[in-house]
Amino acid sequence: MNYRSIWSIYQFEMARMWRTIAQSIASPVLSTSLYFVVFGSAIGSRMESINGVSYGSFIVPGLILLSVLQQSISNASFGIYFPKFTGTIYEVLSAPIGHLEIIFGYVGAAATKSIILGTLIFLTSLLFVPVHVEHPFMMILFLILTSVTFSLLGFMIGIWADGFEKLQIIPLLVITPLTFLGGSFYSIDMLPPFWQKVSMANPVVYLISGFRWSFFGQGDVSLEWSLGMILLFLGICFATTRYIIKTGYKLKN
Amino acid sequence: MSSMVSIQNVTKTYSGGFKALDQVSFDIKSGEIFALLGSNGAGKTTLIQAICGLLRITEGAIEVGGSDVVLNAKNAREKIGLVPQELCVDTFESVWNTVSFSRGLFGKPKDPGKIEKILKDLSLWDKRKNRVMTLSGGMKRRVMIAKALSHEPEVLFLDEPTAGVDVELRKDMWNLVRKLQESGVTIILTTHYLEEAEEMADRIGVLSKGKLLVVEDKDVLMKKMGKRQLILEVEDPAVNLPLSLDRFHYTQKGSFFTFQFDVVNEELSIGALMSEIHSANVQYLNLQTKESSLEEIFMEMTRI
For residue B113, what is the domain's CATH number? Predict the structure, then answer.
């Protein structure tokens, strides 16, 4: 394992985040803050609490994950797509590094950005709504696992995409609907029974439920299910990403 | 000299069936400047990409410094620096950062002194804080060379390094390449400027339609394939040259007689012709000699 190479890619990608801090950090923090103001402070104060948790507090975990999911995919996909687009990928592909170094460098940086973003959004939420975290260790674990998993997914999208439009297709047409319908703004048991069953096919439900459990000690599904699903998804994404890099799909002729 | 790059029976066939390389085999010696020539689509860039691990070959084997580029890719790639044909640069990064990144990417520890020397050698030191996007095309080309040199490669691939650069920069590049060779770096360059290969290369390989036509020492190649001409200008266009000169092949155009020589044929050398001319007491106004350039040899070889 070439740790210097991993560190170089990681630093290079992190430098890009600081260079584009308005887009990478300020913009998602601001837009999520608007959700806290509108749905948390304004509308939320007139809504009933859910399972004993005020609505403003209830939506915090879901909104954090909404941003983390979107930004993980966006950061990781752009991180590998941009060198492909400019042609500088030749340098990475001709360097004495293996598949794992490439994945750890790019995905590590994208996940770090998401973790920083998630933390900042959490801290910002404290300005608008009262939030108490019952299981901080589990909250951090879920944040890390979710960031890494969706950064891996974003990395695959970045390799697959051959145009800027394709970079946006999956995040906009798949991930955002799944997140909104995954219980970001409501508890699954508020839905009619049929839609509750349908929702169980949405993997994001398990992520939001687990993350929410770490805040309030309660979720739509059990903690074990949530952890199991995120670990399963992480394993699938990692194995697929490694296979893609190994085969040189869309990277080498 | 030992072999730095060994290419054995390399074939690259794309999925559509197009054969970009066809059973190419040759060695590049350690410390030499090797020029790979060929017209567009001859397979030069494909071959370089195959050596550098940017594409997979269909058949054959390539070794760099004794390490197979597929089976022992990391060891092989450590030794390689690549400057591709296209201007591929990190436009938003500073010159210093992008060059430092390349060094780290190849697993080398930070060495600001080394980076400083490379940037100074390439006249980039004053631009080190500038974003790459603000540089001219020639400067960007220098940045790419600096990146390739940042990890101290043993073998440097320069794919059309002087394409689209001005004369001054071209001369600078030639000087740099010579300096690198003096420091022990093996250099493989492709170029469309054949005078560049003629000026720089120790050996020359010619590719045409994916096949290797020749690999030869430059001087030997020019001797083998080159032609010499002696042009004799006489006062009277109606003059008849003596029969003793018939064994030398010549053509007449007005008062100019052009004699063709095979460089390797000693019996029909320019010296022999001059003796005959003096013996026959042929009166002439002027004479001049001319040798084939590498460009003419190249055109002759790839005309098939």
Answer: 3.40.50.300
Cβ–Cβ below 8 Å for A9 and B86: no
Following DSSP, what letter does each residue of B20-89 receive, concatenated?
EEEEEEEEEETT-EEEEE--TTSSHHHHHHHHTTSS--SEEEEEETTEETTTTHHHHHHTEEEE-SS---
Residues of A with CB under 8 A from a CB of B: 2, 4-5, 7-9, 11-12, 15-16, 19, 86-88, 90-98, 248, 252-253
Question: Residue A252 domain-assigned?
Answer: no
The answer on pLDDT for B221 being more than 80 is no
Size of interface A-B (CB pairs under 8 A): 79
Final residue before a domain boundary, out of B161, B192, B222: B222
Residues B254 and B176 in one domain: no
Q: Are residues B128 and B258 in the same domain?
A: no
Same domain as B116, residue B240: no
Which of B55, B77, B103 is nearest residue A96 as measured by Cβ atoms?
Answer: B77
Whether B178 and B258 share a structural domain: no
How do residues A126-171 score in pLDDT, each as one tens digit?
A: 888 888 888 999 999 999 999 999 999 999 999 998 888 888 888 8
Average pLDDT over residues A15-30: 84
How many angstroms separate the CA atoms of B200 and B221, rounded?
14
B86 CB neighbours in chain A (<8 A) are 87
| Same domain (yes/no): B29, B155 | yes
- With 70 as the cut, is the pLDDT of residue A118 above it? yes
Q: B14 — contact with chain A (CB < 8 Å)?
A: yes
A114 pLDDT above the threshold of 60: yes
Choose the final residue of a domain: B197, B222, B247.
Answer: B222
- The whole-chain average pLDDT of chain A stands at 87
Take residue A89 and report the two structure tokens written for it: 């990928």
Chain A partners within 8 Å of B56 (Cβ): 248, 252-253
The string of pLDDT tens digits covering residues B202-219 is 898 888 888 888 888 877
Residue A205 is part of which domain span? 3-247
Complex confidence, ipTM: 0.84
Question: Contact, B182 vs B213, CB < 8 A?
Answer: no
Domain span at residue B272?
227-302
